[in-house]
Amino acid sequence: MRSLWNDREAEACAGDDLAMRVYSSRLLGSEEYLVMHGGGNTSVKSATKDLFGDDVDVLYVKGSGWDLQTIEKPGFPALRLKETQRLADLETLSDEEMTRQLRSFMLDSSSPSPSVEAILHAILPARFVDHTHADAMVTLTNNPRGKAIMREVCPDCLVLPYVMPGFILARQVYEAIRDVDLDGYKGIILMHHGIFTWADDARTSYEHMIELASRAEAYLADRGQTKHPEARQDVDLLDLARIRRAASRTRGAAQLAMLDQSGSAQGFASRKDVADIATRGPLTPDHVLRGKRIPVVIAKRPDEDVSEVAAFARTYAAYYEAHKTEGLHMLDPAPRMAVWKESGCIAFGSSVRECGIVADIARHTRQAIQTGESLGGWRALSEQEIFDVEYWSLEQAKLGKRGAPKEHQGKIALVTGTYGGIGKAVCEALMRDGATVAGMDAHPGVVDALDGMTGIPCDVTDENAVRAAVERVVATFGGLDVIVCNAGIFQSGERIEEQDPDAWDRMLAVNLTATQRFMNAAIPYLKLGIRPAIVVVGSRNYAAPGPGAAAYSVSKAGVTQLARVAALELAADGVRVNVVHPDAVFDTRLWTEEALQRSAKRYGMTVAEYKTKNLLKTEIRAADVGRLVSVMAGDAFRATTGAQVPIDGGTDRVI
């Protein structure tokens, strides 16, 4: 590990303590082997003026919800320093009371809540204080000989046994440093937890952190094994979908199951002792809040119901019963991580971001575990100590503040024909309602068109390409819950006796045959999905065809009939199949201003009149269709299959 300090960048912060605090905090946050996903905290002691213009000494400390990698000045609430320091004089202080008192010391009540380590930051005498959970250091302190190793690696640091974060930790440090001259020390090593460093200038405190973490890395490199076996194995995607279904059912909500098939993940999952070493406990106790205490270990060939997940839930319930205290409520017993033997490591979560955090934790943990084993063993904290963090009152209080999940949160959707128009609007509606969305389109621009989603260039008439796209989505996110068959082309103006054979074949290939091929590829995964649904985008023409549009009308009638048969066939598997029939949706790439004017003129109308030539005299937009499709894929239609819903403003020829 090396220092990233840049004198020119630091000079821009000169004379501004808080700006300097932001700068060096971001340096720490940019190194994932020091800080991950909101972990760690930093502070600076400074002076400012209160509302009355009086000078006041303050502690700027990292606030809750901010990440050191991206933190800005508003992420550091200002606390009255002397009052914060005095809290350490108390013999006891509950976490709830500590939180209340710290908030009462804030100069700005609208600022984020201060770190639970604020008291500790306050009592360390230096101006700048840094705290990280450096992987290398925690790996060493999780060793059976951890204390002896720390005395060897960090003779210029205080080494303290693990205690709970918050007031208990602040009190421990307060007593440890009360009669100690800290001038001879570069930091404090907290066993199983992390490092604190300090100095009166930001650079020295930061570089002390880099130095101590580098010593730990060097010790691991010299004495242990830091390169670990890798493997490459094919995986069964249907088994992955089964694993996801089991985890979702256990959690009581749809979950993504993002599989890490990297060489390192599969190498770890292929170890003969993986069931033992992977289930001893987390790298650091705060990881339990994201990933549970341990992962579930799943056989290479799991049974239909993936019984290991149910067994994990039973074990978790027993763990809770063994350690619970009055007033606690058991969290859901579903795993957040899995080691799938030989196939890799799985992260479960209700969003790609949540899974990404869990996957990062799993990656760092397996590296640390294997290196730790090579040094004589991996010994995490006890069940009780981990439980105390998982069920910490401050964390329990956050549960009631979580909003209700979105309609499709944790569900996976795949839509065809998504470069623009109705298809893109469907994707956007599903994403707004919480789904993880992928869209397919023959236009290569689909990759950039779907902001925040996955765009897949794909000709839907290429059966192999369609199957590959479906498998890509399953391999990436773990399964499939919603498919929307939207891809289609339109051509009119050719009467039957004038119909070009190639145009006829192309229309049916895109609008009808490709839909059947898409269903064929997706249905095996939908049967393993969470409240699965198929929505087919039809057309008014299925019921009210017009002259000169035989191929289009026939293809839409055919796809409607295909959906009806699918509804009959898939009902027993819980897969709902419904059709939406839009008409006169003009805000698409198909309808240019010139085309609209030509069509309106043919009817003797203005463009505005032409857009609203329906019974309700309303314009139908792509977004309207998108919203309807999302609703039809959701629980409002949980008892509906085989339905056909028009969205055309009312057409007398259909009604």
What does this structure look like?
This protein has 655 residues and is an alpha/beta fold. It folds into three domains: 7-223, Class II aldolase/adducin N-terminal domain (L-fuculose-1-phosphate Aldolase), CATH 3.40.225.10; 239-399, 3-Layer(aba) Sandwich (L-fuculose-1-phosphate Aldolase), CATH 3.40.225; 412-585 and 620-647, NAD(P)-binding Rossmann-like Domain (Rossmann fold, 3-Layer(aba) Sandwich). 42% of the residues lie in helices and 14% in strands. The chain has 25 helices and 18 strands. A seven-stranded mixed β-sheet has the order 3-2-1-4-7-6-5, sandwiched between helices. A seven-stranded parallel β-sheet has the order 14-13-12-15-16-17-18, with helices on both faces. Strands 8-11-10-9 form a four-stranded mixed β-sheet. α6 crosses α15 (352-374), α18 crosses α25 and α20 (463-477) runs parallel beside α21. The N and C termini lie far apart (72 Å). The mean pLDDT is 95.
